[in-house]
Amino acid sequence: MNNIFLDTINGKSSSRPPVWFMRQAGRILPSYRKLKESHNFYDMMKDPELSSEVTLLPINDLGVDSAILFSDILVIPDALGLDLIFTKNGPKFTNALNNENFNHLNFDPQKLEYIYTNIKKTVENKNTTPLIGFCGGPLTTFMFMFRGDETQKSFKDAIKFFYNNRKESMKIIEQITEASIVYVENQIKSGIQCFQLFETYCGSIPYDLYKECILPYSKKILNRAKELGCPTIFFPKDFSLGLKYINKDICDFVSIDWTMKLEDARNLVDKNVGLQGNMDPRIFYYDELKIESYLESLSSFGKNNHDWIFNLGHGFLPDIDYKKVQNVVNWIKNKNWNR
After folding, report:
1. DSSP-derived secondary structure for 123-168
2. Is the model's pLDDT at 152 over the cut of 80?
3. Each residue's pLDDT tens digit, 268-279
4. pLDDT digits over 139-149, tens only?
5. Whether pLDDT at 171 is above 70
6. Residues 302, 275: contact at Cβ < 8 Å?
7. Dihedrals φ, ψ of 15, to 5°?
């Protein structure tokens, strides 16, 4: 398959950077909001036809170079026995971990089977568009597993447990990792062509502590995908100077958040690892001229770095004008990058 995203992720030169966006399947798209009028998030995630449709909406609506599976990082805690439900205020676990109740995890791989069905259906429908699979990073997943109240936005209970109960925390991290590896293996068998590990709350602990305690487990998940011939992207949000620890033994590409310039990230990250990112999604609140000025500021980096995938520093905010996103995609595709 000749595709600019696959060429780039596999180390080949291309005439321009490929472009896709985190949280592209949903939120900002009128076509997605139309579906939400008659289906809730959980229904769309569980139904193969609906999941496939939502996964592929950004291909037509935005013109991006890759699709990413429509799912949720919380499916692993659900499969570990925490009983995920979706409420009007967001997801919650009816059996969340806490200080007194943390030994009841039991992985049921059957609870993930519907996702593999969704992937296979999407592969049937997607023609030549690459499909990215994903799961949550070990620390991020751990954090959510202590949140039983959907209105609770902080992770203080998880952080407190991690610091006070390190041995027990690492046992939970190991269980998350082993379940995630099974999940990754089956996503690849079902047809994904790239895998991204979302460590959204990497910055919740100091980067040296993450490197010591968590990074070996993230590496284990990513390495399993690589062993199966699937290129990998690691997104350690707010890892800051910890990016200096990222090398080819961990991942093929690393996704950069908006707190750091791409040039600075390039100087920190091993030169054999490609970069993805890192537009601040709030830039879409600018008018078109300011957005284009921002894009122009990336010209030199894009010219000199063929191992770069254009993306956001995190996901879309829900009130962003999707037409501005379309314009950004068109700008990237139409610009002469002088490569």
Report:
1. HHH-TT--EEEEEE-HHHHHHHTT---TT----HHHHHHHHH-HHH
2. no
3. 999 999 999 999
4. 999 999 998 77
5. yes
6. no
7. -75, -15
Cis peptide before 40 (omega within 30 of 0): no
- Residue-wise pLDDT for 47-87, tens only, equals 999 999 999 999 999 999 999 999 999 999 999 999 998 87
Q: Are 9 and 231 in contact (CB under 8 A)?
A: yes
Cα separation of 232 and 61, whole Å?
Answer: 26
Q: Which two tokens stand for residue 129?
A: 């568009």
Contact 74, 145 (CB under 8 A): no
Contact 268, 243 (CB under 8 A): yes
**Three-state DSSP class for residue 180:** helix
Judge whether residue 283 has pLDDT over 80. yes
Share of the chain above pLDDT 90, in %: 89
Q: Which two tokens stand for residue 247?
A: 């090398």
- Kindly state the tokens that stand for 93: 């676990």
Strands (E), 37-130: 67-68, 84-87, 90-93
Four-CA torsion 197, 26, 309, 137, nearest 10 degrees: -10
Residue 21 burial (10 A CB sphere; 0-12, 13-18, 19+):
buried
Domain range 4-334, CATH architecture:
Alpha-Beta Barrel (3.20)
Peptide linkage before 164 cis (omega within 30 of 0):
no
Element (H, E) at 196: strand 194-199
Phi then psi for 319, rounded to 5 degrees? -100, 20
Q: What token pair was written down for 147?
A: 């949140």
Find the angle CA(15)-CA(275)-CA(299) to the nearest 5 degrees: 50
- Where do the domains of the chain lie? 4-334
